[in-house]
Amino acid sequence: MSTQAPAPSRREQILKEAARLFAERGFHGVGVDEIGAAVGISGPGLYRHFPGKEAMLAELLVGISGRLLTGGKLRAAEGEGVGRAPAEVLDSLIEGHIDFALDDRPLIILHDRELDRLRDTDRKLVRSLQRQYVELWVEVVRKVYPRLAEAEARACVHAVFGLLNSTPHLGRPGALPGRAATAALLHRLALGAFDGAHGADGAASEPKGPVNRAL
Protein backbone atom coordinates (compact mmCIF):
# COMPACT_ATOMS: atom_id res chain seq x y z
CA MET A 1 0.00 0.00 0.00
CA SER A 2 1.36 3.44 -0.93
CA THR A 3 2.31 5.73 1.93
CA GLN A 4 2.74 8.81 -0.26
CA ALA A 5 0.83 11.90 0.85
CA PRO A 6 -1.90 12.98 -1.58
CA ALA A 7 -0.90 15.65 -4.05
CA PRO A 8 -1.92 19.14 -2.93
CA SER A 9 -5.13 20.47 -4.44
CA ARG A 10 -5.05 23.48 -6.72
CA ARG A 11 -6.51 25.54 -3.88
CA GLU A 12 -3.67 24.45 -1.58
CA GLN A 13 -1.11 25.24 -4.28
CA ILE A 14 -2.54 28.73 -4.66
CA LEU A 15 -2.38 29.35 -0.92
CA LYS A 16 1.19 28.10 -0.68
CA GLU A 17 2.39 30.36 -3.47
CA ALA A 18 0.37 33.30 -2.19
CA ALA A 19 1.99 32.90 1.24
CA ARG A 20 5.46 32.79 -0.29
CA LEU A 21 4.90 35.83 -2.49
CA PHE A 22 3.16 37.88 0.22
CA ALA A 23 6.02 37.13 2.62
CA GLU A 24 8.69 38.03 0.08
CA ARG A 25 7.16 41.21 -1.34
CA GLY A 26 4.32 42.28 0.92
CA PHE A 27 0.59 41.95 0.41
CA HIS A 28 0.28 45.03 -1.79
CA GLY A 29 3.42 44.15 -3.73
CA VAL A 30 1.86 41.06 -5.29
CA GLY A 31 -0.82 40.94 -7.95
CA VAL A 32 -3.38 38.25 -8.64
CA ASP A 33 -1.73 37.61 -12.04
CA GLU A 34 1.59 36.81 -10.34
CA ILE A 35 -0.02 34.34 -7.95
CA GLY A 36 -1.77 32.71 -10.88
CA ALA A 37 1.47 32.47 -12.87
CA ALA A 38 3.18 30.77 -9.92
CA VAL A 39 0.67 27.91 -10.08
CA GLY A 40 0.30 27.83 -13.86
CA ILE A 41 -3.13 29.43 -14.28
CA SER A 42 -4.33 32.84 -15.42
CA GLY A 43 -4.92 35.51 -12.82
CA PRO A 44 -8.66 35.61 -13.50
CA GLY A 45 -8.72 31.83 -13.09
CA LEU A 46 -7.92 32.35 -9.40
CA TYR A 47 -11.37 33.81 -8.91
CA ARG A 48 -12.81 30.33 -9.34
CA HIS A 49 -11.10 29.48 -6.04
CA PHE A 50 -10.96 32.79 -4.13
CA PRO A 51 -12.86 36.08 -4.47
CA GLY A 52 -9.61 38.02 -4.07
CA LYS A 53 -6.27 38.43 -2.34
CA GLU A 54 -7.95 39.41 0.93
CA ALA A 55 -9.72 36.05 1.05
CA MET A 56 -6.42 34.24 0.48
CA LEU A 57 -4.77 36.15 3.31
CA ALA A 58 -7.68 35.44 5.66
CA GLU A 59 -7.66 31.73 4.87
CA LEU A 60 -3.90 31.56 5.40
CA LEU A 61 -3.91 33.28 8.81
CA VAL A 62 -7.14 31.81 10.16
CA GLY A 63 -6.15 28.43 8.76
CA ILE A 64 -2.75 28.19 10.43
CA SER A 65 -4.15 29.37 13.78
CA GLY A 66 -6.81 26.68 13.54
CA ARG A 67 -4.31 23.98 12.54
CA LEU A 68 -2.00 24.82 15.44
CA LEU A 69 -4.88 24.60 17.91
CA THR A 70 -6.24 21.38 16.43
CA GLY A 71 -2.79 19.82 16.34
CA GLY A 72 -2.06 20.88 19.91
CA LYS A 73 -5.34 19.44 21.18
CA LEU A 74 -4.64 16.18 19.36
CA ARG A 75 -1.14 15.87 20.82
CA ALA A 76 -2.42 16.61 24.33
CA ALA A 77 -5.31 14.16 24.03
CA GLU A 78 -3.11 11.41 22.61
CA GLY A 79 -0.61 11.88 25.42
CA GLU A 80 -3.23 11.77 28.12
CA GLY A 81 -4.96 8.83 26.44
CA VAL A 82 -1.90 6.60 26.71
CA GLY A 83 -0.91 7.86 30.15
CA ARG A 84 2.12 9.91 29.17
CA ALA A 85 3.68 12.17 31.77
CA PRO A 86 2.92 15.88 31.40
CA ALA A 87 6.57 16.50 30.47
CA GLU A 88 6.20 14.17 27.50
CA VAL A 89 3.05 15.99 26.43
CA LEU A 90 4.94 19.29 26.63
CA ASP A 91 7.75 17.81 24.55
CA SER A 92 5.16 16.82 21.94
CA LEU A 93 3.63 20.31 21.90
CA ILE A 94 7.08 21.82 21.43
CA GLU A 95 7.87 19.41 18.60
CA GLY A 96 4.62 20.29 16.84
CA HIS A 97 5.26 24.02 17.07
CA ILE A 98 8.85 23.59 15.88
CA ASP A 99 7.54 21.77 12.79
CA PHE A 100 5.36 24.80 12.08
CA ALA A 101 8.18 27.27 12.76
CA LEU A 102 10.57 25.49 10.41
CA ASP A 103 8.17 24.49 7.65
CA ASP A 104 5.81 27.48 7.49
CA ARG A 105 8.11 30.48 7.86
CA PRO A 106 6.17 32.59 5.32
CA LEU A 107 3.08 32.33 7.53
CA ILE A 108 5.02 33.68 10.51
CA ILE A 109 6.09 36.66 8.43
CA LEU A 110 2.54 37.16 7.20
CA HIS A 111 1.13 37.11 10.71
CA ASP A 112 3.65 39.67 11.95
CA ARG A 113 3.26 41.96 8.95
CA GLU A 114 -0.26 41.56 7.59
CA LEU A 115 -2.61 40.55 10.44
CA ASP A 116 -4.05 44.05 10.69
CA ARG A 117 -5.17 43.85 7.05
CA LEU A 118 -7.80 41.24 7.91
CA ARG A 119 -11.43 42.17 8.44
CA ASP A 120 -12.34 42.63 12.09
CA THR A 121 -14.25 39.34 12.18
CA ASP A 122 -11.33 37.36 10.74
CA ARG A 123 -8.78 39.09 12.98
CA LYS A 124 -10.90 38.39 16.06
CA LEU A 125 -11.18 34.74 15.03
CA VAL A 126 -7.39 34.49 14.68
CA ARG A 127 -6.94 36.03 18.14
CA SER A 128 -9.52 33.69 19.66
CA LEU A 129 -7.84 30.61 18.19
CA GLN A 130 -4.46 31.85 19.40
CA ARG A 131 -5.73 32.43 22.95
CA GLN A 132 -7.10 28.89 23.08
CA TYR A 133 -3.76 27.56 21.84
CA VAL A 134 -1.88 29.51 24.52
CA GLU A 135 -4.20 28.26 27.28
CA LEU A 136 -3.71 24.68 26.12
CA TRP A 137 0.03 25.12 26.62
CA VAL A 138 -0.43 26.91 29.95
CA GLU A 139 -2.38 23.99 31.35
CA VAL A 140 0.33 21.52 30.39
CA VAL A 141 3.20 23.77 31.49
CA ARG A 142 1.70 24.18 34.97
CA LYS A 143 1.50 20.42 35.36
CA VAL A 144 5.19 20.10 34.50
CA TYR A 145 6.32 23.15 36.48
CA PRO A 146 3.91 23.43 39.42
CA ARG A 147 5.76 26.33 41.06
CA LEU A 148 4.85 28.61 38.17
CA ALA A 149 1.80 30.79 38.81
CA GLU A 150 -0.73 30.95 36.00
CA ALA A 151 0.34 34.42 34.88
CA GLU A 152 4.01 33.37 34.90
CA ALA A 153 3.25 30.25 32.90
CA ARG A 154 1.32 32.28 30.34
CA ALA A 155 4.18 34.77 30.02
CA CYS A 156 6.61 31.89 29.54
CA VAL A 157 4.47 30.35 26.82
CA HIS A 158 4.33 33.64 24.92
CA ALA A 159 8.11 34.01 25.31
CA VAL A 160 8.74 30.50 24.01
CA PHE A 161 6.46 31.16 21.04
CA GLY A 162 8.52 34.26 20.32
CA LEU A 163 11.70 32.19 20.44
CA LEU A 164 10.37 29.43 18.20
CA ASN A 165 8.74 31.87 15.79
CA SER A 166 12.06 33.66 15.27
CA THR A 167 13.01 31.15 12.55
CA PRO A 168 12.47 33.61 9.66
CA HIS A 169 15.18 35.79 11.24
CA LEU A 170 17.80 33.11 11.93
CA GLY A 171 19.60 33.72 8.67
CA ARG A 172 19.69 32.26 5.21
CA PRO A 173 18.68 28.58 5.13
CA GLY A 174 22.10 27.54 3.83
CA ALA A 175 23.81 29.23 6.77
CA LEU A 176 21.87 27.24 9.38
CA PRO A 177 22.46 23.71 10.69
CA GLY A 178 20.43 20.97 9.08
CA ARG A 179 16.74 20.77 9.85
CA ALA A 180 17.10 18.04 12.48
CA ALA A 181 19.90 19.90 14.26
CA THR A 182 17.96 23.16 14.18
CA ALA A 183 14.85 21.44 15.53
CA ALA A 184 16.84 19.84 18.34
CA LEU A 185 18.44 23.19 19.22
CA LEU A 186 15.08 24.97 19.33
CA HIS A 187 13.68 22.18 21.49
CA ARG A 188 16.51 22.52 24.01
CA LEU A 189 16.12 26.31 24.06
CA ALA A 190 12.37 26.06 24.68
CA LEU A 191 12.82 23.61 27.54
CA GLY A 192 15.63 25.74 28.92
CA ALA A 193 13.33 28.75 29.02
CA PHE A 194 10.70 26.85 31.00
CA ASP A 195 13.31 25.31 33.28
CA GLY A 196 14.85 28.72 33.93
CA ALA A 197 11.52 30.30 34.79
CA HIS A 198 10.66 27.42 37.11
CA GLY A 199 13.90 27.87 39.02
CA ALA A 200 13.85 31.67 39.02
CA ASP A 201 12.89 31.83 42.69
CA GLY A 202 16.31 30.50 43.62
CA ALA A 203 15.33 26.89 44.15
CA ALA A 204 16.99 24.17 42.14
CA SER A 205 15.05 23.34 39.02
CA GLU A 206 14.48 19.61 38.73
CA PRO A 207 14.39 18.14 35.23
CA LYS A 208 10.85 17.05 34.47
CA GLY A 209 11.09 15.82 30.90
CA PRO A 210 12.17 12.47 29.49
CA VAL A 211 15.84 11.60 29.65
CA ASN A 212 16.30 11.89 25.86
CA ARG A 213 14.70 15.31 25.54
CA ALA A 214 17.90 16.74 23.98
CA LEU A 215 18.51 15.02 20.65
UniProtKB/TrEMBL annotation:
Keyword DNA-binding included in the entry's annotation: yes
Residues in coiled coil: none
Ranges of residues in domain HTH tetR-type: 8-68
Residues spanning the signal sequence: none
Keyword DNA-binding: yes
Ranges annotated as spanning the membrane: none
InterPro entries attached to this UniProt entry: Homeodomain-like_sf, HTH-type_TetR-like_transc_reg, HTH_TetR, KstR2_TetR_C
UniProt keyword list: DNA-binding
Residues annotated to bind DNA: 31-50
Protein name per the record: TetR/AcrR family transcriptional regulator
